[in-house]
Amino acid sequence: MASPSPCFLLVLIVTLMAAAEAVEAETTASSPAGKKTYIVRVDHRAKPSVFPTHAHWYGSASFSGGGADPLPLLHVYDTVFHGFSASLTQARAAALATHANVLAVLEDRVRRPDTTRSPQFLGLRNQVGLWSDSDYGSDVIVGVLDTGVWPERRSFSDRNLGPVPSRWRGTCETGPGFPASLCNRKLIGARFFSKGHDAAFAAGGGGINETVESRSPRDADGHGTHTASTAAGRHVFQASMSGYAEGIAKGVAPKARVATYKVCWKGSGCLDSDILAGFDGAVADGVDVISVSIGGGDGMASPYYLDPIAIGSYGAVSQGVFVASSAGNDGPTSMSVTNLSPWLTTVGAGTIDRNFPADVVLGDGRRLSGVSLYSGKPLAGSMYSLVYPGRSSGLSASLCVENSLDPKLVAGKIVICDRGSSPRVAKGLVVKDAGGVGMILANGASNGEGLVGDAHVLPACAVGSAEGETIKAYATSAASPTVTIQFKGTILGVRPAPVVASFSGRGPNGLTPAVLKPDLIAPGVNILAAWTGASGPTGLESDGRRTEFNILSGTSMACPHVSGAAALLKSAHPDWSPAAIRSAMMTTASLDDNLRRSVTDESTGRPATPFDFGAGHLNLDRAMDPGLVYDLSDQDYVAFLCAVGYDAKTVQVITHAPAACPARKPAMEDLNYPSISVAFNGAAAAANQSKRVRRTATNVGAGAGAVYQARVEMAAGQGLSIAVKPRKLVFTAGARRQSFAVTVTAAAEAAIGGVGARYAYLVWSDGEHEVRSAIVVSWMQPL
């Protein structure tokens, strides 16, 4: 099997070590008796006619090797993927890998799941624009792969919706506490997948805890309900989370239909084999859009042929289904973006113009800004003693991990806790159990000034790194330090916004830098959406509060905004391909904030780059009419995979059908992507280097005839020369597609003072439309 060119396999050792530490032993799913769960990719065309179905073939003695026991099949895949999953010994998995009709054997892994105002912030308006023109996404079906759904929420009401689309082939699976009657004309389907999970955790516990959740599509975690309602929740009046973010809650596509696929289980994550089954089921059921707010598993970028999310999403996209995925929450570290496949739309997170401020008032009168969603009894201005346990009790106490605080030290006081090691809200519970009256949660240097609100179990707020250092210095230097926290509710009209969230996964793309990732950002900070009735807003077992809505942050929250946007665009343009929909969003994305300045990076305060936000911030006010799109077909993706260096068998693992790579190896940069990423040889940076990149634009504007002129926008002193040929594209009714080439020349290192990444933009304009593509130039060191 050929390997990708080492020039393009980037390894950032620090990033990978940190990711490996974060997931520890959870990346491999182990079964009893030395078995593990495996996903087996089969050449389905080889099935002997004597077997009525592929399942019969896979379970037969002839497939399993004569006298060997029949394979213990878990899932059988036959839509986005052909093959099965099974619990096997390592020896039997190795033997299967040599089977004449087996293309690949993949070890199963555990992954983790990565509003009242955000639709308006995206440019959506009632009775005008994309909402009106798409009829609010009516009859488009959004499939959500997540932790399930709490169907009784008003966000899933089917009031005034028409019949279920006739093309729908799905079902409403039942289970304890989940009768089929819970599905309706809004929530048209609900399924759950646990066979891989059950096999993986059959020994030693750690699997499904049936005392807190049922074997049904019901959501005991809340994540899936939140993402589904963000994408397509109905209008809900008088919505809030305990008084915060009051208003009318609605999803991005409020009349779209929802189908949920429970592939993640509370506390134990999501098995690749179940995720793949979810993809298979969703496409077979007839969804138009799939939303996958699930992270990359072990934090390392697997080759596309070893990544079931990449494989499953390719099968979906090849059948016309748009797939959005989260970019991961390991920013602002470089190369932390996940879900890198070029057929996926990878979404990072930005802020919106709403915040939940809380002030920390020190005994010396200084006032420092933080954020909080605490809704209990306030401190009412009373001053309390302030203590920082990390000063005297060590690292575990500074992090406020379980059983680390001495009640004699913290009782009756407000405690400073550092972020890290344990969930933010869990630290507050530790403080409360030790007798503390409040908590100040301080960011570390790696978190910077990025803040998210939490529904704390005691009076508490989060502060940035600089404010945290100020408070710690006061607590350790003042003779009798005192403090109070003042909660200020909901503030609208915050400026600047959007800002790239510090946690949002960043580029470059660690597998194939010729594809810029993330693709774009969308609202992902402090997002209000529906919540489960099985858990409090903190998700802690001891949190007995119950709320209809909750406010969460993460790229998991950004992803369904793009899924909902895709539903609107699909409704308005049913003939558009997934690539065309993504292109429309990317080439119309915003680069400026609401101060009309360049979008900034929360972690640095400096202007963000395409490695931070991709094409920019989603702007649905313009995406419905982008003018031109960069479209892609299956053959384009096959050419890209050949360019990566995969041989025909490896390509087939991803694409179903056999693929023949051309005799002349294609260039990865020529994939017809809406952005342009050029990677030069870092070892040759002492000399000028040049690359030519080809693109084809399709006119989707209202007028068949249009003339577009090219311009390049670039800051001075970049050391780049960018030439576009031709500089004018003329479209007619008979020529709606036109090709062009972009030649990027970079000066020698000495001429530009180093070889850090450089950025520019190519804009095609007809006087009405501005079709913008980010251009990223970087220098990569060969391994």
From TrEMBL:
Any single Gene Ontology cellular-component annotation: extracellular region
Subtilisin-like protease fibronectin type-III domain ranges (all copies): 670-777
Species this chain originates from: Musa troglodytarum (fe'i banana)
Inhibitor I9 domain location: 37-112
PROSITE patterns for the chain: SUBTILASE (PS51892), SUBTILASE_SER (PS00138)
Record InterPro entries: PA_domain, Peptidase_S8/S53_dom, Peptidase_S8/S53_dom_sf, Peptidase_S8_Ser-AS, Peptidase_S8_subtilisin-rel, Peptidases_S8_3, S8pro/Inhibitor_I9, S8pro/Inhibitor_I9_sf
Keyword set, alphabetical order: Glycoprotein, Hydrolase, Protease, Secreted, Serine protease, Signal
Protein location: Secreted
Lineage summary: Eukaryota, Viridiplantae, Streptophyta, Embryophyta, Tracheophyta
Record keyword Manganese present: no
Sequence ranges of Basic and acidic residues compositional bias: 212-224
Domain PA, chain residue ranges per copy: 384-471
Record: active site: 146 (charge relay system), 223 (charge relay system), 556 (charge relay system)
Annotated Pfam families: fn3_6 (PF17766), Inhibitor_I9 (PF05922), PA (PF02225), Peptidase_S8 (PF00082)
The protein's name in its UniProt record: Subtilase family
Stretches the record annotates as Disordered: 208-229
GO biological-process terms attached to the record: proteolysis; system development
